[in-house]
Amino acid sequence: MVHLQYNIACCILVLFILSLAKANFQYYMNFKHTAKYFSENKFRLDIEWDSQWAKDIKFGQVSAVSIDPCGNIGIFHRGSRVWGSTTFNIENKFDERKGPIHEDTIILLDKSGKKLLEWGAHKFYLPHGLTIDMHGNYWITDVALHQVHKYDAEDIEIMKGLSDLRKKQYNQGKSLKPSLILGEAFKPGNDDKRFCKPTAVAVENNGDFFVSDGYCNARILKFNAKGEKLLEWGRRSIYGQIPLQNTFNVPHALALASELNLLFVADRENGRITSFYATNGTFHKEYKNLSTIGPLVYSVAYAKERLYLINGPNSHYNVHVRGFVLDVNSGDILSQFDPGQDMDSPHDIAVSQNGSEIYVVELNKNITYKFSQKTNPHRGPAPLTDADVNNPLAISTTEKIILTLFVVTVIFIGLCASLAAVLTRSQERGCLLIMRKRMRWEAERRENYKLPNLLENRRGKSSKTTEKRPNPRDFNKLNTEPETSEDEYPDNSFTKII
C-alpha cells in the first residue's frame, strides 16, 4: 500500500512539472497577444481618440501631416489624383502632360479641427512629404517632380490675412512661390542636383536640413540653409539579407531630436527605425520589434525622449496596424493606440512638442486622426506610458529571456529529481535486480538451446548414469560413437548396430 501511494505521488509530480512546462510554453508563444490585451486596456486610458476631429472635411489620398509653431495642423493630400501602378514608367518618370493637381492640396486646421487655410492648387503633381519647421516654413516633397520645395512662413502668413478670393488669387499667382527648390523637375537622378522620388524633410534649429531620397536611391542627404550639400550616406539593402546599419529599403520619413543630436529614419520595408548622429551621419541605434510592430514602419515622430511610429499591414504577420510609443533609450514599447480598431493604411504621424497631441493620416481611407495623451504632473510633460509605473505586467525582452531560462531550468531539475526518485525506489524494491536476473535467465535459456550445449548436457547426463555402473571400456572415441553401455551391446556392439 505504501509503495502504491509513493508511485501515485511520483506520477502527480511529473504531471505537475509537465503542466508547468506547457503553461510556460503557451505563455511564451502567446506573450505578444497577452501584452497587446494589457496594452489595449491601458492605452485607451492614456491615449484617447477624438472621433469628431476634422470629421466633415474631405481629403484625397492623405500623405503627410505636420504641426506648426502655433500648434496648428497642416495636412498634405492629393486631391483627385491617386498614385497607381501606371503613375510612373519603368524609368521612374511621371507623365507631366497630366498637369498639376487642380484642388488645394494643403489644409491648415486648428486644434479643434476648424479649417484655417487652404492652398496648393496648381502647384503639385504628386504630394508626399510635409514638414513645418520651428519658424513656420513649409518644406514639401513631390515624388512626381522629384523635388524639394521650401515655402517661407511670411508668405503663408500673408495668405492667412487675405480674403477667400484674394487667397485664391495669391495662391494661383506668382506671389506664392517657393524660396528654395532642390532637384530638377520631372528628371529622376542620383547625384548632388537630382533626386528620385524624395519622401521627407527634417529641419534643424540652425536651418540645416535632411532629405530622405527615397523610393529609388535609398540615401539620406544633409544640406545647409542655402541648399548646399554637406553630407550623404546610405545605400539599398540586399533583399533577403539582414539589413546593414547604413542601408535602407525605402527611407520613408524623418524625425529630429535636436537635444540628442539624433536623426531618426523610418526604414519602411526593413520594418525598423534607425538613428544617426545629426552632425556626421554616424549610425547610433536600431529600433525594431518584428513580433508586435511587424515588418513595415511607415513614419516616425519624436517628443520628450519618446518615439512615435506607425506600422503597416502585412499578410505574413498577424500584427495590429496602429500607432506605437517607444522609449528612445531602451527601445521598449510603452503604449499603443488606434481609433477603436486597426487602421487600414497609416502613412504619416506628427506629435506636439510636449507629446500631448498625436496626429495620424491614412492614405487610402483619406482620413485624419487626432489622439490626446495625458501627461504625468509628477514627472513633467512626459507621457504616462512608463512600463514600470503604468503597466506592471509588461515585461522587457531581457526579463522574458531570464524568466524563460529560469523556468526551463526548474523544469529540467524537477524532471531529473523525479527520474532519480523513481530509479531509487525501484532499486529499493528490487525491481532492477529482478529484471537483471530475468535477463540473465533468458540469456542462459537461449544459450542452452544451441546444439553444442544440448550435446554437452546429454554427455553430462550419461556420465552421471555411468558413474553408478562400473564400465571398463575405453571411451576415447566418445565423439564418434554413440553413447551406449556394454550391457546393451556386448562383443562388437558397434558392428551389430550397423
Structure description:
The chain has 498 residues and is of the alpha+beta class. Strands 1-26-25-24 form a four-stranded antiparallel beta sheet. The protein has a four-stranded antiparallel beta sheet with strand order 2-3-4-5. α1 runs antiparallel to α5.
The count of β-strands is 26
Query: End-to-end span in angstroms?
Result: 69 Å
Query: Given the structure, what is the number of helices?
Result: 8
> Based on helices, strands and strand pairing, what is the structural class?
alpha+beta
Mean pLDDT: 81
Taking the sheet with the most strands, its summary is: 4 strands, antiparallel
Arrangement of strands in the largest sheet? 1-26-25-24
Helix content: 25-40%
Query: What general form does the structure show?
Result: elongated
Beta strand % = 25-35%
Sequence stretches where pLDDT stays below 50 over 5 or more residues = 25-45, 377-396, 472-498
- Evaluate the radius of gyration: 41 Å
What is the compact description of this entry?
This protein has helices spanning 2-46, 153-160, 164-172, 387-390, 397-428, 431-448, 451-468, 493-497, and strands spanning 47-49, 62-67, 73-77, 106-109, 115-119, 127-132, 138-142, 147-151, 180-182, 198-203, 209-213, 219-223, 229-233, 235-236, 247-248, 251-257, 262-267, 272-277, 283-287, 297-303, 306-311, 323-327, 333-337, 346-351, 357-362, 367-373. It is built from 8 helices and 26 strands.
Describe the structure using short key phrases.
alpha+beta; 8 helices; 26 strands; elongated; disordered C terminus
